[in-house]
């Protein structure tokens, strides 16, 4: 199957009852600011070209961000922060991401989430992560011919990604290296970078800054030749 076919399949998934209920409840209750909008309320597929050299692995859609807009990191403060950095280092066509159809494109970069439905408190369970894992594995398998770097935003994504890479034959060390901001793994022709998640909490406490994210993205872009 192609990446477009995978995207079409994933949006029909209802394998996690708790997350299906949560994503649909958010669409019914809505935030007042979005009261006139139709929420996506389905799994959010990856975003970016099928021949991407760089993947960005996040956590999961937020209830009123990507679960509303249907596009990764689109419509919430994490996305606002991330797209500004992506644009600054030349990986996004514009610094803002508001809705499908806003003209934004990613350059050589594909965003993927290890859990594709919005979870309560942005916290998927390990069981939900495991249930969703086959979608991540399938997406990375399709990207593999061109994929040369991955930027992982946060420990959850790191813990989700490494077993998938190991199962797909990349030489992930055992025991698995710990997540950290600035952690780098070279797995054959793939380089994996750890970066603190761009959550509002991390941004507000200055655990992660615009400069820190730009630095990781620049290193990853260099590896891929972007
Ligand atoms: Fe399906 Fe993943 Fe959503 Fe669970 S989180 S319902 S496996 S798409």
TrEMBL record:
<dbReference type="InterPro" id="IPR036895">
    <property type="entry name" value="Uracil-DNA_glycosylase-like_sf"/>
</dbReference>
<dbReference type="InterPro" id="IPR044147">
    <property type="entry name" value="UdgB-like"/>
</dbReference>
<keyword id="KW-0227">DNA damage</keyword>
<dbReference type="InterPro" id="IPR051536">
    <property type="entry name" value="UDG_Type-4/5"/>
</dbReference>
<comment type="similarity">
    <text>Belongs to the uracil-DNA glycosylase (UDG) superfamily. Type 5 (UDGb) family.</text>
</comment>
<keyword id="KW-0378">Hydrolase</keyword>
<dbReference type="Pfam" id="PF03167">
    <property type="entry name" value="UDG"/>
</dbReference>
<keyword id="KW-0411">Iron-sulfur</keyword>
<dbReference type="InterPro" id="IPR005122">
    <property type="entry name" value="Uracil-DNA_glycosylase-like"/>
</dbReference>
<keyword id="KW-0479">Metal-binding</keyword>
<feature type="domain" description="Uracil-DNA glycosylase-like">
    <location>
        <begin position="45"/>
        <end position="217"/>
    </location>
</feature>
<protein>
    <recommendedName>
        <fullName>Type-5 uracil-DNA glycosylase</fullName>
    </recommendedName>
</protein>
<keyword id="KW-0004">4Fe-4S</keyword>
<keyword id="KW-0234">DNA repair</keyword>
<keyword id="KW-0408">Iron</keyword>
């Amino acid at each position: 199957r192609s990446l477009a076919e995978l995207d079409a399949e994933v949006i029909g998934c209802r394998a996690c009852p708790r997350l299906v209920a949560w994503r649909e409840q958010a669409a019914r209750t809505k935030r007042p600011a979005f009261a006139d909008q139709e929420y996506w309320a389905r799994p959010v597929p990856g975003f970016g070209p099928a021949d991407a050299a760089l993947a960005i692995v996040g956590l999961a859609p937020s209830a009123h961000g990507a679960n509303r807009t249907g596009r990764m990191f689109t419509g919430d403060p994490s996305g606002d922060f991330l797209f500004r950095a992506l644009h600054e280092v030349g990986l996004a066509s514009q610094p803002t991401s508001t809705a499908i159809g806003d003209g934004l494109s990613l350059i050589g970069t594909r965003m993927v989430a290890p859990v594709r439905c919005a979870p309560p408190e942005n916290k998927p369970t390990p069981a939900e992560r495991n249930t969703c894992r086959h979608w991540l594995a399938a997406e990375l398998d399709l990207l593999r011919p061109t994929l040369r770097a991955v930027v992982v935003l946060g420990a959850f994504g790191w813990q989700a990604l490494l077993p998938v890479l190991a199962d797909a034959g990349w030489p992930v060390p055992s025991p698995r290296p710990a997540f950290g901001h600035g952690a780098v793994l070279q797995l054959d022709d793939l380089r994996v970078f750890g970066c603190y998640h761009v959550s509002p909490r991390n941004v507000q406490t200055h655990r992660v800054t615009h400069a820190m994210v730009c630095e990781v993205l620049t290193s990853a872009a260099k590896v891929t030749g972007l």
